[in-house]
Write a structure and sequence with these properties.
Number of helices: 8
CATH topology of the largest domain: Nuclear Transport Factor 2, Chain: A
CATH architecture of the largest domain: Roll
Number of domains: 3
Structural class: alpha+beta
Strand content: 35-45%
Radius of gyration: 38 Å
Number of strands: 23
Helix content: 10-25%
Amino acid sequence: MKFKAAKDRKYQLSIFRSFLLFLCLCVWWLFCSTPGTIATSESSPGPFQADRTISSFSIEKYKELISYVVKPGDTFLGILSRYGVAPEKAINCYRSLHPLGLMSLIPGDSLVMTRYTGGAMTAISLLHRLDCWYTVSFDGPAIKAGKKPVSTCSQRCIVRGVLETSLSEDMNKMGVDDACVSKFADIFAWDINFFVDPQKGDSFEIVFEKKFVEGRFAGYGDIFAAQYVNAGHVFNALGMTDEKSQRRYYDLDGKSLQKQFLKAPLRFTHISSRFSLHRLHPVLGIVRPHLGIDYAAPTGTPVYAAADGVITFAGFTGGFGNQVRLRHGASCETSYGHLHAIARGIHSGARVCQGDLIGTVGMTGIATGPHLDYRMSISGRFINPLTFSPPSEKSVSAQDMARFDAVKREWCAIAGMRFKGMTGFYVLDIDAGRPYDHRQPPS
């Protein structure tokens, strides 16, 4: 009997638990089906919840970004058509950007296109010439175009080194490419011939600007200051802008580094024959004066005017082959012989400026190999171009002397304190602007 009573109690408890579970289910069903409760909340979410859900859902499942770098021969219409944009829409897109300054795409431009997966394009961004962003957005048939500047950054850097092989190789090892090396050589072009003067053990120091656009290296800016020590002789260059915003360079005394004549009118490999009153001619086999300098260089190497002047002759002259002669002032003349070709526009009576192209290296006339025969005469007397010391063009004006002193103090502080005694490449500061362009001296 006791066993039967216990069994009845367990049965009744099981029925009671089932009834409670059924009652809970009924209450839950009534609560969820009542207006204004959870069902309503799910069908009408709050603003924050709705925005987050739709945005996440659209970005993750319905939009894709396409990046494309423009190649030679690409057109705006061709690129967009390739990604499913109708020709008429692509043309309208280009027309909307044309008034903002976009003439055509160039190789290297970057396109970022946004579209629904496998569907319509919604927006286009174009980084043009690393100069600006062009943007286009589509709202149905309407097209909205815009233009905005790129994100830019500059670094003022310093490189120091001791010459081991050549200026170009040594600076390349430090991460500075030939564009900066060329600027450095041009600054000292009136005092140093970087093809023959440098010696192992020379030292160099340059403060220059590196530019970045959208985080990418975009080239070198100006050289602010520089120093080269050649065989114990120190050459300094301090850069300062003039009234035309052109940077000119001066030594520590304020004298211009720009001279009336270039040290050499071309980039050559070596000097094959020097100035001499008694030279055995390599072709004729006789001893006679060689009143110039022979600069050996590959055929086609550009030859530049050594100074401002007027062309007195340009043509063929027998032993000198193709030759150009320039008159500088009343008494000085330079000549350029054995040219492969004479540049367009170079003729008698034409005026040229220092650094203008006048021809290219060749071996016309009597010559054993490609080279430039460069000669200089004053009042009809030939002189050795390598020993000629032309005067400086001008010095810092009195009204600019205070600004020059500020430039000089900053350069001396950098040279004497920043990374003192260390060689290599270093960043001085970021987004420094143009520190050597102070219009007002510090108080």
